[in-house]
Write a structure and sequence with these properties.
By secondary structure, the protein is an alpha+beta fold. It has two domains: 70 residues, no CATH class; 239 residues, Alpha-Beta Complex (Fumarylacetoacetate hydrolase, domain 2), CATH 3.90.850. It has a six-stranded mixed beta sheet. Strands 4-3-2-1-11 form a five-stranded antiparallel beta sheet. Helix 3 packs across helix 6. The radius of gyration is 21 Å and the shape is globular.
């Protein structure tokens, strides 16, 4: 089934069930108001949501309405626990070399704790406060887990994966090697069975499509070069403590191992972050040509099935300049003068 969170004026939004083709939706308020409620009581509530999903997909839901991804918040607008991992060796190797040559800080390689209090929706605008800070994007995959006891095995952790999402992190590369500015998620989170054969060995074996200002930027396979699967990573995270339902684990950016052609490394799949492309340019030509993100730039991230149908909906992040400071009114100016 596919689940999303609609804006309703609250911090946590309203849970909806979305049809497989992303055209129809139905409020799930008679079952649960928030996605976190479902994760907390999955065995009982997920079966009811599955019934609603089946009814919706068969076109028999009485109160269905047209699904609008622009009304979506992040599936989990607030997460109790959020972890990140640079899970692709090609990304680590490329950026470590570039950072060493530039005398900058190294890339974080292990699991890192990330903020979970304010997660962006798929169409939220992101303020670019200072383009000189090097605004970058980092697109990848994320899973949401059930409760995991301390010391859970990789197999147990993989069984605890409840939902899969797309993620796109906006980073300031000029601030201590990569400070998180904002993180957005796909309109829809789906259960792994919705991926069919693409969900294999704890990985998503499909291309992650990234475009920058409507131009193709990358088509990296999300599963091909990921040595540790999501179960391995979740198991590593709970070796010293338990994880609670609703934990988000992100692996971004997706990165593929370069191919060798005439003794030179090439990246035919492209990239899922600007930092990687800039590092490739520096390795090849001695300097980076691609600019970091600027106001009015738009990054689109999407994953499609073999028939071209979108699985999660698209993340479309537009960077905007911050609004100018408000001018004081004449009355306040006069009062201050007095």
């Amino acid at each position: 089934m596919k689940l999303a969170t609609y804006q309703d004026g609250s911090r946590d939004g309203q849970l909806i069930v979305v049809s497989r083709d992303l055209t129809q939706a139905h409020y799930a308020s008679h079952i649960a108001n928030r996605l976190q409620q479902v994760l907390d009581d999955w065995n009982y509530l997920s079966a009811q949501l599955q019934d609603l999903s089946d009814t919706l997909n068969f076109g028999k839901a009485r109160h269905a309405f047209a699904f609008d991804p622009r009304q979506c918040m992040a599936p989990l607008p607030r997460a109790y626990q959020r972890l990140g991992c640079a899970a692709y060796p090609s990304h680590l190797e490329l950026l470590q070399q570039a950072n060493t040559e530039a005398g900058e800080a190294g890339v974080q390689t292990g699991l890192v704790q990330l903020g979970g209090d304010c997660l962006a929706g798929p169409h939220d605008a992101i303020e670019c406060t200072d383009a000189a800070l090097g605004m970058d994007f980092s697109a990848g995959m994320a899973v949401v887990s059930a409760d995991l006891a301390m010391g859970s095995t990789a197999e147990q952790a993989l069984d605890a994966v409840r939902l899969v999402m797309l993620v796109n992190r906006v980073l300031q590369r000029g601030a201590h090697g990569g400070t998180e500015r904002a993180t957005a998620f796909s309109p829809v989170a789906l259960t792994p069975d919705e991926l069919g054969v693409a969900w294999a060995r704890g990985r998503v074996h499909l291309p992650l499509q990234c475009t920058l200002n409507a131009r193709s930027f990358g088509q990296c396979d999300a599963g091909a070069d990921m040595p540790l699967h999501f179960g391995d990573l979740l198991s590593a995270a709970c070796q010293s403590r338990a994880l609670r339902a609703g934990t988000i684990l992100e692996c971004a950016p997706v990165s593929n191992t370069p191919q060798q052609r005439k003794g030179q490394a090439i990246w035919p799949q492209g990239f899922a972050s600007l930092a990687e492309k800039r590092a490739m340019e520096a390795r090849k030509d001695g300097q980076s040509e691609s600019a970091y993100l600027q106001p009015l730039d738009c990054v689109r991230v999407e994953m499609k099935q073999a028939d071209g149908a979108s699985l999660f909906g698209a993340i479309e992040l537009a960077l905007v300049a911050p609004p100018p400071p408000a001018r004081p009114s004449r009355a306040s100016t006069a009062a201050q003068t007095a």
